[in-house]
């Protein structure tokens, strides 16, 4: 069992992210291929097994003793898990594991990353809605049947064991499409004392989504072309919307886009006026976040999710600026 002891400062700094990235998803996907549970992945699992059933398969390059997800995570994150703290991993073995993760990510995750991220953003929205509507306690009590909130301790059922005190660094919650365990815990910058990330399984509901599989016409289709969004809002503002998948300050957005602070101010003013982003100010920091309209626009769902007159009005106004 993992025990995360959360202080008042930690509770005040709980955040929700959309994803920890394609590479971490690939590590969980590697474990999913080897399991026969989860009907959602059955067709996908069969196809991936066929793709990797070759002499140089990335899965075959991993020794059986290293197929535990926690060990691969520890190698990939350079010791950024409780289970891997203090472990010595030989350099050649690290190279084999990292090469296998990269190869598998390229085969099984990257071709569908846009759609995978969209699914995870739905979970992110659900977690945020729970927190904003019912509070932190309700959020922590809703993380899964094998995660328990016994204030001030968050208990997570796991084959591994450990105890962590973020010491005011807070806790980042992030969903995963492929994670099959109750949760996984990643440490920030390899430290056991600051800002851990708790990764939670998505558990797609087959009553509302089709089973995951590769190929055209599936639940995870190829990403839509970006050009319609560029034509609608302009290339820089389209890049800003993509950059704001994860909230950031004006300075951080300037760094991500490679533009000046003045240009960021101009573009965020326009995007905020169109209802695509929201800005929250705290002292000298302006934090920008995508609104529901902005997220739907990125997902190509604007016409279904937003009344047409408003969408047309915003498009005309944006095109004129």
Question: How many structural units, i.e. domains?
Answer: 2
Gyration radius, to the nearest Å?
Answer: 21 Å
Q: In percent, how much strand structure appears in the residues? A: 5-15%
Task: Give the uncertain stretches in residue-range form.
Answer: 189-193, 216-226, 301-316
How many distinct helices? 14
Largest sheet: 4 strands, mixed
Quaternary status = single chain
Count of β-strands = 11
Nearest-integer average pLDDT:
76
Q: Which secondary-structure class do the elements indicate? A: alpha/beta
- What global shape is seen? globular
In short:
The chain is α/β, with parallel strands linked by helices and 321 residues long.
Task: Describe the structure in your own words.
The protein has about 325 residues and is α/β, with parallel strands linked by helices. It is built from 14 helices and 11 strands. It has helices at about 10, 20-35, 40-50, 70-75, 90-110, 115-135, 135-140, 225-235, 235-245, 250-255, 260-275, 290-300, 300-305, 310-320, and strands at about 1-5, 15, 145-150, 155, 160-165, 170-175, 185, 195-200, 250, 275-280, 285-290. The strands form 3 sheets. The protein has a 4-stranded mixed beta sheet with strand order 3-4-1-5, with no helix packed on it. A 4-stranded mixed beta sheet has the order 2-6-8-7. It has a 3-stranded antiparallel beta sheet with strand order 9-11-10. Helix 8 crosses helix 9. It is globular, with a radius of gyration of 21 Å. The N and C termini lie far apart (about 55 Å). Residues about 190-195, about 215-225 and about 300-315 have low confidence and may be disordered.
């Amino acid at each position: 069992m993992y025990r995360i002891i959360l202080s008042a400062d930690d509770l005040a700094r709980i955040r929700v992210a959309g994803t920890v990235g394609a590479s971490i998803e690939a590590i969980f996907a590697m474990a999913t291929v080897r399991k026969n549970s989860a009907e959602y992945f059955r067709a996908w699992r069969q196809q991936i097994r066929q793709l990797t059933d070759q002499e140089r398969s990335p899965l075959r390059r991993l020794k059986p003793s290293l197929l535990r997800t926690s060990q691969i995570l520890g190698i990939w994150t350079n010791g950024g898990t409780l289970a891997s703290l203090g472990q010595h991993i030989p350099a050649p073995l690290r190279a084999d594991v990292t090469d296998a993760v990269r190869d598998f990510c390229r085969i099984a995750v990257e071709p569908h990353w846009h759609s995978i991220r969209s699914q995870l953003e739905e979970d992110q929205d659900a977690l945020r809605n729970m927190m904003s509507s019912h509070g932190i306690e309700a959020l922590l009590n809703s993380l899964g049947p094998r995660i328990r909130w016994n204030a001030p301790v968050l208990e997570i059922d796991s084959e591994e064991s450990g105890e962590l005190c973020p010491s005011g660094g807070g806790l980042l919650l992030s969903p995963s499409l492929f994670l099959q365990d109750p949760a996984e815990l990643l440490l920030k910058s390899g430290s056991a004392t600051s800002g851990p990330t708790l990764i939670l399984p998505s558990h797609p509901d087959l009553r509302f989504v089709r089973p995951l599989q590769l190929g055209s016409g599936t639940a995870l289709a190829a990403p839509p072309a970006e050009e319609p969004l560029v034509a609608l809002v302009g290339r820089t503002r389209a890049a800003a919307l993509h950059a704001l998948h994860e909230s950031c300050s004006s300075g951080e957005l300037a760094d991500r886009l490679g533009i000046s602070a003045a240009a960021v101010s101009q573009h965020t003013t326009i995007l905020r006026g169109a209802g695509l982003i929201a800005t929250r100010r705290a002292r000298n920091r302006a934090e920008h976040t995508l609104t529901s309209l902005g997220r739907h626009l990125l997902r190509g769902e604007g016409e279904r999710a937003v009344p047409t007159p408003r969408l047309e009005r915003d498009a005309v106004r944006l095109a004129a600026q």
